[in-house]
Every structure is written in structure tokens, then in C-alpha cells.
Amino acid sequence: MSKFCKIFRIIFVVHLLTDVSLTVRYDPNWKSLDSRPLPDWYDDAKLGIFIHWGVFSVPSFSSEWFWYDWKQRGLPGIIDFMQKNYPPDFTYPDFAPEFKAEFYSPIEWASLFKQAGAKYVVLTSKHHEGFTNWPSKYSFNWNANDTGPNRDLVGDLADAVRDYSLKFGLYHSMFEWFNPLYKSDAANGFKTQNFVKSKTMPELYEIVQKYKPEVVWSDGDGDAPAEYWTSQEFLAWLYNDSPVKDTVVVNDRWGKNISCHHGGFFTCADRYNPGKLQTHKWENAMTIDHYSWGYRRNAPLSNYLTIEELLKTFITTVSCGGNMLMNVGPTSYGRIVPIMEERLKQMGEWLGVNGEAIYGTRPWSHQNDTVSKDVWYTKKKSATGYTVYAILLQWPKAGTLTLGAPQTTTATVVSLLGYQGNFNWSKGPIGGIEIKFPLIGWNMMPCKWAWVLKLDGISN
């Protein structure tokens, strides 16, 4: 063997040993699938935007479960709404032609999400009603290209979001309330898989191959086991052979009793915010509207979270190791209403000052302080070890803040993000630190809500 061939062989072997994509393949079982490392981009991102949009945006009343609550549960409020406003023979599919999205501007949406400080976007490709927001081959005449908008809502947003250097993801409902094939499989105790083989799985493979989402957010697994859905086979393909195999992340809703146990990141429940550090990466999927994921025309201002409430949710989520997926519900005509637009821009305004304490951080040894309970922590690697960030939900009224968790050293330096100069401090009487806040004029405050102290030189 020539010297050149020997060198080439050594290089090739080293490449095989270091290139995970060439050596690691995942088997269709949870033990193997759960061993896949979560791509770093997701843990660094912290904030995503969720979008619930579909035919339910036309009635825009009650919630995105309008059809089910009307026909299956028979909620009196929805029945009364329909009797007062629509003819007796009106059906839910009759709403679809009114889902026109005539003011839908993907570029404007993507720009707004960028301004919000989000790093990824997850659009509803299909909710439980079965209407697909892309021209699916498996949803004849019940999709956005053949009915209503007459365009590919998914593809248009995917392009715009990526133009703004954001990650693009897709939510997909595995089941459909009133699909006859699903109802037949359910009646058979999920021993048959006609719905899965002709609808759910073909759609999932289709959207991954066509749109290359870097988040696949599954939902609607219902009472059916993962084996019925063939979830493990799909995830093995997604991790091994799909066009996003190296960067894609998935959630945990892949079958009965799978949530909070298996998957890339855990969601556990809607609006999940445990308030303490979790052992597995998780996501708080939540809504700006207290009560609905879809747009509601009759929602009063009091039903929307204030920016203070949003920031508290976000800060506690990140401190405890989670990401926050903040949901907006656009109108049927394709606009994000002003109150939601304002909240997104306020979030971006805050992150513009304090993003250093959020993006790329990891949980510290303490999540909230042992003395001042409205203070939450994050940490980040620095040239000298770690920087700790103390995020204050309330400005100290007496001009002094006592923190019990940080242990000081002679090298400790305290500063406020967005403000020039360091703060004076002293060691607390029983440990911790007492921080003296200078008098800062209202017009010199770095931000309006939730302030961040940067603590360098902390021993713990």
C-alpha cells in the first residue's frame, strides 16, 4: 500500500469516527430514539412563535375546537351562536370558502416574529378539523389550495421565515375528529390502521420532504398507542434518512402515555410551566389569549396576558430549563391583531436589552432566589468561568436588593444590563449579597419591565 493510500485510509477512518451522521442510526424503539442528542440550536433559542390558523379562524368564536364543541359536545353557547347567525342547514365545511386569507403577508409575519426576538416559528399545518394549510395529496378538496385561500399557506411562510434567518417548524394533528377512517379505527380498538396508512403518515412524510421543518410538533395522538400511529418508525426515518435528520427536533405527543416520557423535548400539557428545574429539556407551549389558541372576535382585553405576565412566564420557563412557544391566532383574513402584535413587539423590546441573559443560557444551581422570590436565575459560560444573571420581576423599592443564592468573592462585579457602570455591593450578614441600586432617572432606565443584574465572579 502506498504512503498516500495509508494517509487517505487514516483520514477516512477518523472521519467515520467523528462524523455522527455516518456512524449512528436509530432503531424504531423508544430506547434508541431517546438516545439521540437534542440539536444545540433548540436549547439556545429559548423563544418560538406558535401559530394556530385554520377554518376555525372563520367563526373565530369560543376556540379552535369550535366544530367538535358544536357537533360532538353540543355546547349551548355555540349552538346559540349558530342559530342566531347562520341558516339551519349550515355545516362546518361551509366556513371553508370564507377562509380567504386575503391580507396574509408572510413577509410581514416573519418580520414581526423577528422583531419579537423569536428564533423559531411553528405553524399549524393541520389541526384536528383535518383541513390542511398546504396542497396535500392526501386531503382532497379540504385544503388551502383547493378551498378558501387558494394558495400554499405553509410554503409561503416557510420561505419568508427562512429569509429572516429563523427556524421553521410545523404542527401536525395526528387524528381528525370526524374522519370516517379514524372513527372506524377507533371503533375497532385501533387494531386496524386504515386512517394512519392513508392519511396521517403520508401527510407527515409529505410535509417533511416538501418543507423540511426543523421542528415537527405532533399533537392529537388521543387514546391511540404509538404502535397504532407507527410513531417510532416515522421518528427513526426522521432521524436517520429525512432531509432534516441532523437538525430536526420533535416533541412528545406520539401516542397514549408517551407525553412527558419520550421524544426530543417534553410538553407534558398545554401551558406547562412546572416552576422548578426539569431533568429533560421541555417546552412551555402557551397562549397570549388566556382561553384560546385560535383567534376569538369576542375576546375582551382582559383575556389577553399583559407584557408583565408574559415576561414572568418566559423568565420562569427559561430559568427552569425550558423554551417558551408563544402562540398567536391570526384572523381568517390573515392579520395578526394589534393586541398580539403589541405583545410580540414588547417581548422583542425587552429581549433587545436583556437577550444576553436568555439566549444560549443554561439553568443555574438555583432557579429562583432563596430570599427574594421574585428573582430568577440563568447562567452562561464566560472567559473566567460562568456569568450568572439575576432577573428581577420587581424593581427594589428601598434601593437595596438582598439575594441569598449568590456566593461572592473579591472578584465579584455587579452590573445592570443596558446601564453603564457597576453597582456597589456588600456581603450579606449570613451570606449572599446586598446590592445597592443607584438613583436612575425614569428616562435612563434600560427597560420598562423585568430588569437583569449581571453577576460576574460568583463562586457558586
What is the fold-level CATH name, i.e. the topology of the largest domain? TIM Barrel
Q: What spatial form do the alpha-carbon principal axes imply?
A: globular
Q: How big is the Rg?
A: 25 Å
Mean pLDDT value = 94
Tally of contiguous helical segments: 14
Low-pLDDT segments, ≥5 res: 10-21
Strand content: 15-25%
In terms of structural class, how would the helical and strand content be classed?
alpha/beta
Whole-number count of domains: 2
What secondary-structure arrangement, pairings included, does this model have?
Blueprint: H1 3-18, H2 20-23, H3 30-33, H4 40-45, E1 47-51, H5 66-71, H6 76-85, H7 106-115, E2 120-126, H8 153-163, E3 167-173, H9 180-187, H10 194-211, E4 215-219, H11 226-229, H12 231-240, E5 249-250, E6 282-287, H13 307-319, E7 322-328, H14 338-354, E8 375-382, E9 385-392, E10 400-403, E11 413-416, E12 422-427, E13 433-436, E14 451-456
Parallel strand pairs: 1-2, 1-7, 2-3, 3-4, 4-5, 6-7
Antiparallel strand pairs: 8-9, 9-14, 10-13, 11-12, 11-14, 12-13
Helix pairs in contact: 7-8, 7-14
Offer a concise description of the structure:
By secondary structure, the protein is α/β, with parallel strands linked by helices. It contains 14 helices and 14 strands. Helix 7 (106-115) packs across helix 14 (338-354).
Can you walk me through this structure?
The protein is built from 14 helices and 14 strands. The chain has 460 residues and is of the alpha/beta class. It has two domains: 25-357, TIM Barrel (Alpha-Beta Barrel); 375-456, Sandwich (Immunoglobulin-like), CATH 2.60.40.1180. The strands form two sheets. A seven-stranded parallel sheet has the order 5-4-3-2-1-7-6. A seven-stranded antiparallel sheet has the order 8-9-14-11-12-13-10. A hairpin with a 5-residue loop joins β12 and β13. Mean pLDDT is 94; it is low at 10-21.
